[in-house]
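User: These chains co-purify. Model them together.
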Amino acid sequence: MLDLKFIRENADAVRKAVSDRALEVPLDELLELDARRRKIMVILEEKRARHKRGNKEIGELMRRGEDAAALREEMGRLSDEIRTLEAEEGEIGGKTREILIRIPNLPDASVPVGPDETYNREVRRWGEPRRFDFQPLPHWEVGEGLDILDFQRGVKIAESRFTLLKGKGALLERALINFMLDLHTREHGYTEVFPPILVNEESMFSTGQLPKLKDEMYACRDDELYLIPTAEVPVTNIYRGETLREEDLPIYYCAYTPCFRREAGSYGRDIRGLIRQHQFNKVEMVKFAHPDTSFDELEKLTNDAEDVLRRLGLPYRVVILSTGDLSFSAAKCYDLEVWLPSYGEYKEISSCSNFTDFQARRADIRFKPAGGGKSRLVHTLNGSGVAIGRTVAAILENYQREDGSVEVPEALRPYMHGLEEIAAE
RNA sequence: GGAGGGGUGGCAGAGCGGACGAUUGCGGUGGUCUUGAAAACCAUUGGCCGGCAACGGCUCGCGGGUUCGAAUCCCGCCCCCUCCGCCA
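Assistant: Joint model of the two components:
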């Protein structure tokens, strides 16, 4: 959510930001509603002040045993007027808010401008895609050949886009979770948390998933709760409605959680394998940062995610998303894309974003300046560190051998009982 | 799920229709005293919105209602505690 005052004073900048994102927002209507509301507020506050004074006076008159009937009648009329104005103000305020909460964050000046992902720009590359002297298989064939991925039974148990991991496959998944958590907590300075996986509507609103992405989420039938699409939601909401101390910033958290996405509208895409599942595991990093340093924190966060791929020896590239591809709440976002031989291209495995004060305003997360003064909104950031399912896919594909076995990346071996390869049993 | 009790400022805890944006204690901040500190004493001290400011408004879990006037009365919801039931 943007600051209404900022929009009022920088309407053209907001208009440009929205159009750079290839979106439309009834900005003029918003400004007009806001102007009307402010006019009403002036009258309303004046009436309320008079009402308050009058009521105090009635109290004093009564205490002195004097007659307050006339004043009482006047205050009754004033009370009606206030009620009418309040109703009007409330209605306009509601409409204002409906528009306001649908306005996306302002892209940072360093973000390439363009209407869609073709304007994304590669920032850097790491590692060489391996040259195979045999025909490499897609990870679903590697996994089925080793009897560690069972797609059919996943579908039987739930529905399509759910997968059963088995034996070394389940172990690999667990090893990756532990490897990533250890890396971030022991070397990158993050504190591990394990949050609720079901969250309420307010939490979903705060990080910007609601109202826009309602169709993307699994909701509970009998409770006002949603399955999280990412740990970003519960972890960012740790401090919802709180005021932090400046000297405690930045705060780093990481969390392993399952994630659930309905993937509405992506019916034909990535239909095979682990790439696009309704349920997947992810290790997520979340930061609460000082506004002055949040963009530096984004660079560090991205590097922390890259470190996972480097240690696993998976070739990747870093892409900065264009204005048209940027998510609703983000001001700037780097995607990490891992090399997948079966796709013959790089595929998103992590998304690292700075949300500036956009989520903090929705969530009301502030910090108190150390030198005193008014509290300010923090900046929130998060990034996958990284998506587990896609990492499994990348390992199976990049580390496969001609005989169908898969070498275990060295960094992972301590997490897999020293296992050096996954071979058919 | 059932029965009781309760949600008030950073914390503890009063107030239960008008002088209450809220007694008091602790904590915080400034000061006196002190070589320094502690103690003691004095002063000050919630948050948000609008305003250069003076000032004004909102805020006693949340949302409605009654009333000239609600922290206080009524209704609905949420949360917490105790006991019972159920349960990993």
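Chain A has a mean pLDDT of 93.
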